[in-house]
Amino acid sequence: MATPDLTTLDEKTLGEWLLGRRWFGSKAEDVAHVGVLDSMTLDDAEPALLLALLEARFPTGTHHVYQLLFGVRSADEGWTEARVDDVDGATIYDAFADPDAYRRLGRMLAEQRTVQGDTAAVNFYWLEGAEPPAPDAQVRAMGAEQSNSSVVFDDTYVLKAFRRLEAGDNPELEMLRFLTEREFPNIAELVGWIDYAGELMDATLGVAQRFVAGGRDGWELALDELGTDPEAFVARMEDLGTVIGSMHTALASDPGDPAFAPEEPSMESTSLITATIDEQIERLFVDLPADNEALEPIRHRGEEVRDRLSLLSHIGSGGKLIRHHGDLHLGQTLLAGDRWIVLDFEGEPARPLLERRRKRSPLRDVAGMLRSFAYAASAAELQRGLTAPEGWEDRTREAFLAGYFGAVDPGLLPPGEANARTLLTIFELEKAVYELRYELNNRPDWVRIPVTGIARLLEEPLP
What we know:
The chain is an alpha+beta fold. It folds into 2 domains: 205 residues, no CATH class; 243 residues, Aminoglycoside 3'-phosphotransferase, Chain: A, domain 2. It is built from 13 helices and 16 strands. A 7-stranded antiparallel beta sheet has the order 6-7-12-13-10-9-8. Strands 1, 2, 3, 4, 5 and 11 form a 6-stranded antiparallel beta sheet that branches.
């Protein structure tokens, strides 16, 4: 069967299909145009495996590029799973719905294949020291799709394919490669990756890591133990804090690598961050809905929030700026036996790649984790009808911080733990304001969680 011409896919059909994908990140925006920018055959065996780069354009003039792996079967087979359209007698469908199609990716990684197209090449890399997937590996899609798609090979390796692409190395590849080379023990180590190099862009298509079997998701563990043994979870948090402190120390350990070398914060960079936060606060607090009683504790307090965050420009000059996780919370951790594993180093997928690669204070990661404890306590009540014991969140926070401050290189933080905690409070407040905006737009019933956090943080004593 001849490979179909993907550029002939009906734009309306393709656009409707794209908007229905869970990983499509711009559902709130009108899409002006969807089209295939580039396509190439990765494997022409039956079913064929095609790579396509799709562009979604928006009326504002912006555009996003998405990676699609398409399976191709004869239309006579009547394939319906994740079907996109029929073209030239062939059914085009999402290959991640077909183990026979995506099993090929493991073979191409094992062979370190390069596939050359008309205007680009797709390169498959596999690191020495790791036994590659077998040609007949057992494969399965992993969990519900979020912003990416993942498949598991023989419960030994997992391949994550990035759906939205931007030019340059994905931060997850950079971070995993750096930490794997330094044998940091609390990650799922990098074993391979796939990239696209062409006239359109150079970009990371996916990363392969060791699969962590039997790991328990940190978020689910928190909710489960809040229902069975809340203090057991508190006791685990010092170890997790130690892991995060050690991770930050490792990420700042190579002054000779420009992408990872620690930097002194400049007044210019700090002022830019502060100005951006100011603008966000002004818009958010002016537009607070009048009919939501949960907002009363913070209504008309936007100026207080802005004043607190302006402290960043005064004390933010302490410590160092380093590469950091960028989206750290309990859901980005696994407990495998007695070992904590940190996952998903790509940062917040909605933010531009350059912003995700930017060096920031490591305390931004810590703030994200502390806010996650607040969410766990409230989610246990909202979702499972459980009430966290009095003081549980405070004890969890302090256990985590004890481990963190004991493990992190103190030179990365402002001098003295008191100054570090003040800066941490500011980053927590920034995070809570971000959460407030998200919950107002997506989960109004959860608004009280960031509201409680903002109100508490406004009462913290100033230095």
